[in-house]
Amino acid sequence: MSLFFALFFVISIVIFAVSCYSTLGIVRHGLPENRFDNPGKRFNNMLKYGFGQKLLFREPYGNVHFVMFWSFLIFAAADLEMVLRCIFPVFTGISDKVPPVALLFDVAPALTLLAVLIGLARRFFLPPANIKDRSNDVLKMLAVIIILILAYFGSRGALVASGRSLPDYLPLSSFVAGFMANLSPENIDFLASCFLSVPALALLFFAVYVPYNRHMHMVTAIPNSFFRSLEKPSALKAEDFRAGNTFGAGQVNRFTWKDLLDTYSCTECGRCDAVCPAANTGKPLSPKRLVSSIQENLLANAADLKKGRKPSVSLIGEGKASISEEAIWSCTTCAACVESCPVSIEHLSKTVKMRRHLVQMEAKFPEELLGFFENMEQRSNPWGMAPSERTKWHANADVKTFEAGQTEYLFFVGCAGAFDSRARQVTIAFTKLLNAAGVSWGVLGNQEKCCGDSLRKLGNEYVFEQAVNENKKTFADKGVKKIVTHCPHCFNTLKNDYGLEVVHHSELISKLLKEGRLKFKSAANTGKVVFHDPCYLGRHNGMYDQPREIIAMTAGETPSEMGRSRERSFCCGAGGGRMWMEEYTGTRINRARVKEALGEKPGTISVSCPYCLIMFEDGLKDEGAFNDVSVKDIAEMVAERI
Amino acid sequence: MLVVTCIKQVPDTTQVKVDPVTNTLVRDGIPLILNPYDTNALEEALRLKDKYGFRVAVLSMGPPNAELTLRKALALGADEAILISDRAFAGADTLATSNVLACAISKLSEKEEVGFVLCGKQTIDGDTAQVGPGIAVRLGYSQLTFVDRIENIEAGRKTVRVRRKLEGRHEVVESFFPAMISVVREINHLRYPTVPMRLNSKDARVTIWDNKVLGLDPNTVGLKGSPTWVSKIFSPERTKGQILGNGMADPEGTARLLVEKLKEKEVLTF
Ligand SMILES: Cc1cc2nc3c(=O)[nH]c(=O)nc-3n(C[C@H](O)[C@H](O)[C@@H](O)COP(=O)(O)OP(=O)(O)OC[C@H]3O[C@@H](n4cnc5c(N)ncnc54)[C@H](O)[C@@H]3O)c2cc1C
Ligand code: SF4
Ligand code: SF4
Ligand code: SF4
After folding, report:
1. Which of A331, A367, B148, B157 has a beta carbon 3.0–4.6 Å from B165's, enabling a disulfide?
2. A556: left (phi over 0), alpha (psi -120 to 50) or beta
3. Chain A CB contacts of B14 below 8 Å
4. d(CA B149, ligand 1 centre) in Å
């Protein structure tokens, strides 16, 4: 009998493994990418994000999920032990020898059962908004888990009843064993075999079922956390601009294998959609659907790929197995999706890869961008103003010129800070602070050129690379070592893409205030302050506290927080090159965010990014609140008091 | 059939200043760009290529660094680029310029039938709008200026129908080709080059023709062949305007004042 089951079991395992392999094998058609580097750190990430479920703890039911996840893992180990013990009677397992393990193996499955039941109850009675359109096969899955656990207790109860396990540390199994007390050993054996066939059947069920639904994540989620990107979410790979090469992802096999593996890891939990500014304002972009559409496209092209042919179903376009151009252009690259995804999926870089294809291979993009690209190439700034205008603000400030070997900080003004009349005021305010604190600083004047942030996020890597080379040369010629800037886009780009030493003005100002190098002369006059985290300072660079410290010192109290702040801050709508595009569909992102800020009844909305400043002022005008609430950069708030 | 597009590299005049002492243009450090009107001529030529399968040649007379602009045109899909560059051609006025360009076009027509010469309406540095018509007259081509739409080309009858944009009205005209067509900015917007196109154009060849190739009488080219000289360039003194009204302090009053003034000058008539 046990031989028969052993065979049945082994066959199930083989079928399951083959099925997983043939399903996942298709990701090998993606481009190569090294995700095996730095294994120590990766292992750590796996513990933290995979087993530790780090991201879920931020949520109300996060602990239920954690209990379920961990107790399930323990249950899996217990069930494995059980199966091995039944098949190989010589193997007596470890749980009987180590009492805490025995207890764990008895209690954990019960906890899983409990968590599953709570989950089910929640689904039926309190469905959270973000999972409403989740497919029904979750239910089938949960049903299988319940049956598995019940069968497990059956098997374990049989072990106790037949005297092969001692009941001492197995309260639940002993309870089950009680029902078998009057059965003959043969009957107990038979029952045990029946129970044992359940996990084997379940494996068969998974083998058939998993490849055809989205539960592959049970297999890939943990490995995916090992392969998790070790870089910032905005980190993008450079391209090799050689004639004959292809650029960006215009077909599904132009994604890397990790991009494709990502699509199998998605649990359809909808967390990304819940935080996405585009999805929340009626744009046709859903990061969740982005991921599933890539997988659908992969499956639709599987036959072609296996035969080594070019995929015939287009990746970009209309249709269920494609991603629409409008969706691709709707992303603000705010990284809220990446930050919230429990299984380490990288949405942002996939979108940029498709943008790269559209811009670089097809020259296809929203028409507003034509002017933007031309401005960048001909005038080195997005506004298209004459480079000589870059120094216009100098007339209203005490400006220092950067001197090689003498000046400490290059003040990289940024195009917004130099060309936009409102952002210029921030620039001027910041120079006041630099001068008041006696910082050694200087500007490049007309020799400054755009850092290229929007170019890169819009997928124009070719022109971005030119900009990087030109700017790096200027910095090297001038002997620039340290840079300070008040634009988080410049900050992120110069720091992470150029690899330079850069500080954001919020870091510098907070340091100067703490060191007492800036002295307040007048009283605070800001009213209640609410602070908006710019994505490129916060999520992209993890700097949440510095601006808050400055506000606390300047306004006399810590800023009030919107419902969505810090890691969960909601983008103002300007990132990812959206600054230069019209918003035709749905409501405007900046209006949504301004409404949220107004909900706090502030006197001042404080920002630390020139783009956010422009977006908020526009939003306030649209909301008719421009005369009642002011938008101020942290530098302006401080400058007003010194 | 060949479409010849004449393009000129010009200083980005939004950045050009006149030196008040010497009354010459300060060109130092000013980026050179493709004359904006010529971007439209080039785009229209490329559209004719897409639609009718014509070949596109770009032609420019200028200093050696104009090669960069020609290379961009190649990146966008032009089939052939010719730079006419010779010290003897320097200092040309519109007469000498159109003479040289016409000579180059007729040289091209020896190998392949030239159907159209596309020019920008004018340049942003010389601003004369004479070179296109000058070419047409020298070559005996039809002359269609200020075109904002090429409506139809009938290869059989050798006719072309275009719409001209004139002050306050449009004019649709039909003529025989070969024709010189000068275009206005409204006609189109220059396409954006793909990266493979840019990379391929890096080693694309720009043909350089000097006067040894063209063999023009030295007295008809360059400074010698130019009856016009620019004797003085200056920025007209701006007579100081008046600031009326209370500006932002009284936006409504200021707006009302503006409307009144415009009515006074008969700009607004209601
Ligand atoms: C400030 C200034 C003032 C001048 N004033 C005069 C003047 O009053 N009289 C005079 O005769 N000359 C003058 N010149 C010189 C003359 O303008 C140019 O040198 C002449 O070559 C072209 O004339 P344009 O730039 O006005 O071209 P336009 O006639 O305005 O150009 C029309 C089209 O012709 C084509 N084209 C023009 N030049 C070239 C070229 N070099 N290569 C290829 N295609 C071309 C382009 O398609 C262009 O869009 C002046 C030059 C300057 C810089
Ligand atoms: S980066 Fe931001 S805008 Fe783009 S898909 Fe993610 S959440 Fe949405
Ligand atoms: S991509 Fe991540 S966050 Fe979005 S639905 Fe899938 S698992 Fe959830
Ligand atoms: S990213 Fe910086 S340099 Fe680029 S446009 Fe913005 S402000 Fe200017």
Report:
1. B148
2. left
3. 386
4. 23
How far is Cα A361 from Cα B115, in angstroms, rounded to an integer?
Answer: 31
Report the distance separating Cα B55 and Cα B68, nearest Å.
21
pTM: 0.86
Ligand 4 atom closest to the CA of A489, numbered from 1: 1
- Determine contact: B68 vs chain A, CB below 8 A: no
Clarify whether residues A483 and A567 are in a common domain. yes
- Tell me the nearest-neighbour CA distance from B177 into chain A, angstroms: 33
How far apart, in Å, are the Cα atoms of A127 and each of A289, A563, B120, B138? 20, 21, 64, 80
Contact A504, A546 (CB under 8 A): yes
Q: Are residues A148 and A263 in the same domain?
A: no
Question: Is residue A13 domain-shared with residue A116, that is, in the same domain?
Answer: yes
Check whether residue A470 and residue A349 sit in a common domain: no
Nearest CB to B192 within list A242, A363, A387: A363
Residues A637 and A627: their CA atoms lie apart, in Å, by 18
Closest residue in A to B14 (Cα) is: A386
B195–A247: do the CB atoms touch at under 8 Å?
Answer: yes
| A386 contacts B195? CB cut-off 8 A | no
Confidence band of B203 (pLDDT split at 50, 70, 90): confident
CB pairs under 8 A between A and B: 41
pLDDT at site A383: 93
ipTM over 0.85: no
Choosing among B34, B192, B202, B203, which should be mutated to test the A contact, i.e. which has the most A CBs within 10 A? B192
A207 assigned to some structural domain: yes
Q: Are residues A437 and A330 in the same domain?
A: no
Distance A335 CA to ligand 3 centre (A): 13
Which of A273, A332, A564, A590 best tests ligand 2's pocket when mutated (most atoms within 8 Å of CB)? Answer: A332
How many C-beta neighbours within 10 Å does residue B21 have? Answer: 6
Q: What tens digit of pLDDT does each residue of A296-340 get?
A: 999 999 999 999 999 999 999 998 899 999 999 999 999 999 999
Q: Which of A372, A383, A454 to mutate to test the pocket of ligand 4 (most atoms within 8 A of CB)?
A: A454
Residue A235 placed within a domain: no
A80 plus A149 within the same structural domain: yes
Helix axes A287-300, A257-265, angle to 10 degrees: 110
Question: Which range (A58-62, A485-489, A526-530, B10-14) has the least confidence?
Answer: A58-62
> Which of B118, B128, B228 for a ligand 1 pocket mutation test, highest count of atoms within 8 Å of Cβ?
B128
* Domains of chain B, each with CATH number or no CATH: 2-220 (3.40.50.620), 242-270 (no CATH)
Please check whether residue B259 is in contact with residue B251, taking contact to mean a CB–CB distance below 8 angstroms: no
Closest CA to B61 of B2, B103, B109: B103
Q: Is residue A231 part of a domain?
A: no
The yes-or-no verdict on residue A199 having pLDDT over 90 is no
Residue nearest to atom 10 of ligand 1 (CA): B93
Domain count along chain A = 3
Residues A481 and A550 in one domain: yes
Segments forming the whole domain that contains residue A81: 2-217
Domain finish residue from A315, A340, A362: A362
Tell how far the Cα of A259 is from the centroid of ligand 3, in angstroms.
13
Of all residues in chain A, the percent with pLDDT exceeding 70 is: 95
Rounding to the nearest 10 degrees, give the CA dihedral for residues A333, A334, A338, A339: 160
State the best of A239, A356, A379, A470 to mutate against chain B, taking most chain B CBs within 10 Å.
A379
Instruction: Read off the CATH number of the domain in which A315 is found.
Output: 1.10.1060
Is the residue at A111 inside a domain? yes
Chain A residues interacting with chain B (CB cutoff of 8 angstroms):
241-243, 245, 247, 359-363, 365, 367, 370, 373, 378-379, 386-388, 462
Cα–Cα dist B254/B270, whole Å:
19
